[in-house]
Amino acid sequence: MALDGASGATGLHVSVIRRRKVVRLAYVGPFTAGRQGAHWYAAHHALARLLSRAANATVQAYVYDPDEGEDVIAYGNGRRVGGERVVYEDVELPPGRPEDVDDATFAQMQSRWPLGHLAHVFGVARKELVRLPLAQPSRVLALDGAPSDAEAVLDALLPGPEAPHAP
After folding, report:
1. Residue 38 and residue 29: Cα distance in Å, rounded?
2. Does the pLDDT value for residue 92 go beyond 70?
3. Rounded-to-integer distance, Cα 147 and Cα 21, Å
4. Which residues, at least 6 apart from 144, have a Cβ–Cβ distance to it below 8 Å?
5. Can you give the pTM of this predicted structure?
6. Nearest residue to 4 via CA among 76, 55, 61
């Protein structure tokens, strides 16, 4: 938390899409709400860097501001290994009037934007990834240092290892 400047955080929100084994971790604090929170997350990726090293896996940090744009940054072994950003006002629409772009065409455009690509990698719909903060199951784990049942909560929340296949 100190590396991310998240000393005012009161919790860690854990959201899960179990069928795809997608887990979202996000600090809960006064600095993470709304557009202000999106801008804070755009600049604070220590948790993603540390998790990528500890888990020996690629960890994606993403920022979604529905009014401004979206950003996905990938970390592997504690280092930035990729990323992509789109600013909505810079997006080029197909020729013609903007109001003539139908929903299917717009959805196709969104699928090529950072969150659309990340959703494809995870095997989920873009809409599902955008709504991940509201997904069930989810829980907020207290970060106040007091003893808690965090291990039991995480065991119940997170997808377990797959059972081995019979020969």
Report:
1. 12
2. yes
3. 27
4. 10
5. 0.84
6. 61
